[in-house]
Write a structure and sequence with these properties.
mainly beta; four-stranded antiparallel sheet
C-alpha cells in the first residue's frame, strides 16, 4: 500500500510560480516511477510529468520548458515546480505512483487556480 499526500496548491496569477509537493508513505521498499497528473473541469485526467528513481523525467508538451519535476528518494517525495503558469494550467493536480499495470495509487489532489 502507498499513501500519497499532495500540498502546495493555491491561487496564482498568470506568469507566476507555484511548487507542488507529494509525500509517499506506506509499506513499500522502493518507488520507481512517480508522476503528476491534472484534471480540469469537464476534461479527462492527463499526465503532466513523470520521473523515475534514477531521475529520468518526461513532460507533456503543454508544460515543457515551464514545469520541472524532481524528487527526493530519501524522503519519498516528488515535487512539481510550475513557472510561467497560464490560465489553462488551472486544474486539480494529482500525485500518482504506478505499482503494476493494474495497480495505481493516487493522492486526493490539490487545486491550482491561475488567474488572468
Amino acid at each position: 500500500q502507498v499513501q500519497l499526500v499532495e500540498s502546495g496548491g493555491g491561487l496564482v496569477q498568470a506568469g507566476g510560480s507555484l511548487r507542488l509537493s507529494c509525500a509517499a508513505s506506506g509499506s513499500f521498499y522502493r518507488i520507481n516511477v512517480m508522476a503528476w497528473y491534472r484534471q480540469a473541469p469537464g476534461k479527462q485526467r492527463e499526465l503532466v510529468a513523470s520521473i523515475t528513481s534514477g531521475g529520468n523525467a518526461n513532460y507533456a508538451d503543454s508544460v515543457k520548458g515551464r514545469f520541472t519535476i524532481s524528487r527526493d528518494n530519501a524522503k519519498n517525495t516528488v515535487y512539481l515546480q510550475m513557472n510561467s503558469v497560464k490560465p489553462e494550467d488551472t486544474a486539480v493536480y494529482y500525485c500518482n505512483v504506478p505499482r503494476s499495470p493494474t495497480t495505481n495509487y493516487w493522492g486526493r489532489g490539490t487545486q491550482v487556480t491561475v488567474s488572468s
